[in-house]
Amino acid sequence: MQTTIVGYPRLGAQRELKKYTEQYFRGEITQAELLQSAAKLREAQWLLQKQKGLAISPVNDFSFYDNLLDMAFLLKVIPARYQELGLSALDTYFAMARGYQDSSGSAGQNVRALKMRKWFNTNYHYLVPEIEGGIGSEIQADKLWQECSAAEKLGLNYRPALIGPYTFLRLSLNKSAQSLDTLAAELAAAYGAILTGLARYSCEYVQLDEPALVLDLTADDSALFEQIYLPLLAQKRGQKILLQTYFGDIRDIYAKVSGLGFDALGLDLVEGGRGNLELLEKYGFPADKKLYAGLVNGKNIWLNDYQKSLAVLGRLDKLLPRERLVLSTSCSLLHVPYSVRYERKLAEKYKRRLAFAEEKLAELSALKMLAENPDPAILQRNQEIIWAGQNDPDFLNRQVREQARQAAAAEIARQPIFAARQPEQQKQLNLPWLPTTTIGSFPQTAEVRAWRKAYKQGQLTAAEYQERLKGKIKEVIARQEELGLDVLVHGEYERNDMVEYFGEHLQGFVFTENGWVQSYGTRGVKPPLIFGDVARPAAFTVEWIKYAQSLTARPVKGMLTGPITILNWSFPREDIPLAEIAYQIALAIQAEVLDLEKNGIKIIQIDEAALREKLPLRRADWQRDYLAWAVKAFRLTHYLVKPETQIHTHMCYSELADISATLKALDADVLTVEAARSDWTLLAALADYDKYIGPGIYDVHSPRVPAVEELAGILEKMCAQLAADQLWVNPDCGLKTRAEAETTASLRNLVAAAVLVREKISLPFSPKQVK
């Protein structure tokens, strides 16, 4: 048996790629220096994989921003608005990712970025390609050729990895006049050109990633897949094709792909384990193909259970000989941190249960060895580590478990209903039509980050650190008042991350020093590790929010992260159901909500940015497996508050149109959502939303500053589709990653646009009751 992986992290163990790329954005290094630094990082990772015993390394899994964007660029699927900027190839690529605005802001030089969406059921974000004029057979594959050449110079056994044509087409936005049939034929020709180019290199296999095959597929979807691949497979130039799938099973198309001319099939035997194994045992596995068996979890960070993996291998032994079996990861290791060896402060009882990307390479080698020569001592040690600590007081809280079980059995609904509590809230808050606010965070400046570092290193006392942060809060409250915002926030300067900060104040969480995972582009996050039962020892946001509210007569939102987002943006334990973990977190957040209310906070925002993120990829599993308990967990956080307390929630970069009923069921008084990168196409789906709603009117993940006229036009469009008396005016998301100057300019324009529209459509100061 050989070993391989689907892909590897690229951000860098110390976020080196982020540093290089952002230096380039700031003009501190040249394009040549950026490319050279990135090449060294990439090659070091290849050599590490070889050193750890990996038989085959993927190449082209490395990206400056996003693999789907890379594929669009390779295929020259570049909308005209970016081509017309007249930039270099790399700067055009970054303009598609981040938007573009020149220093003069002249006409034609102010362009929004491509839409951003969540990558299946992960916290990674991809950029949505836009097909404007079809897909030609001419490609620009210099990056791919260069990586293949570099791998050969290092003597690697390598395999080029590409997003497959079916997934590319299914996730792209077709703005052309071309039919799917025409685009399928064009894609087959374009990918054929890639295979022709790869024939110059020594790679035996080419990996085509088709995760879209784990979604619900209709007969038309299957026909489209076959329509693309039949001519493409006929164009092979000596290479073998690995069809790689992940994130689930391929029940709707397994029989078809088995009969096509692929040389190998990659299956996820973790998330799609049960379904894919049943497919293999029911239909068998073709004798002319290799199976890339995804046995090591690419999305979670726990030690592999060798006994379970070997049991799966035992079932596979009945289906095919081991020389046709390749041990692999369930998906790309992009979704886990680099290595446990960088965690110098983490206690050994935690570290020994972890396997990050580098450790998973070793696990593949260990599984290969154990499959060939079982070692009872290694297996016993593996089991002892996995089950250690089950009765450790750091992990076990019987009271919390019982409370969570009681919540699971109870009916959770806020009283009175929204129609009855809405007048009470308006009477208390006295907000204007189209009230303006932000989502929560303000820019985390270098100064703030330096204070946090100094505090952690003992160079600032707790009192000194808090006083400096209070100074920033005072400053941001004054700035928001000057800008004219109606509902203010405290800026979240005390928070390193919207999930990490909460985990640090709750029992049951463990944190890493360098457990960075890429969220999008240069954005990295450090997900907490949920090791034990979750509880809240004491209030931790109340004093900050109270202080901010004491500085102004305008309402200041209490800012909290919701239980589903905390769960979905953490690495969850695997010994109890996810629903039980969610209820435990919800009870902790509920206590914080009630303490905020007791201390006079009239508006409390409970963000659920990641609600849709773990939605099962197949609709039949939505209510049964996820939505019912996710909604219940959110309602558990706020159902005990008074009628006059206004509850907000926020969701970003998720396709929300298909869960509109779920949005209503959350029973938040105000829902703010990402809409700008989706060209506000979400508005139609929200037309029957029955509470307050704030579709984001500008994209905070781009440095461009939208003009007043642009924002006013967007707001008028919203008023035409939604009732003006239910609309809030806000950006797409938090402002943590933006610069202060662009933030102030954008918010000034946002407020001016709201005032302009109020005057234009002659709205009185106070809205009537939402119907």
From TrEMBL:
Answer whether the UniProt record assigns the keyword Heme to this protein.
no
Cite the binding residues for Zn(2+).
Answer: 650, 652, 674, 733
Q: Taking every annotated instance into account, which residue ranges of this chain make up the domain Cobalamin-independent methionine synthase MetE N-terminal?
A: 3-318
Query: Does the record bear Ion transport in its keywords?
Result: no
Residues binding 5-methyltetrahydropteroyltri-L-glutamate are 15-18, 118, 123, 569, 613
Entries under NCBIfam families matching the protein = met_syn_B12ind, PRK05222.1
- Record's family? Belongs to the vitamin-B12 independent methionine synthase family.
PANTHER family given for it?
Answer: 5-METHYLTETRAHYDROPTEROYLTRIGLUTAMATE--HOMOCYSTEINE METHYLTRANSFERASE
Extract the HAMAP family matched here.
Meth_synth (MF_00172)
Listed name of the protein: 5-methyltetrahydropteroyltriglutamate--homocysteine methyltransferase
Q: What is the name of the gene encoding this protein?
A: metE
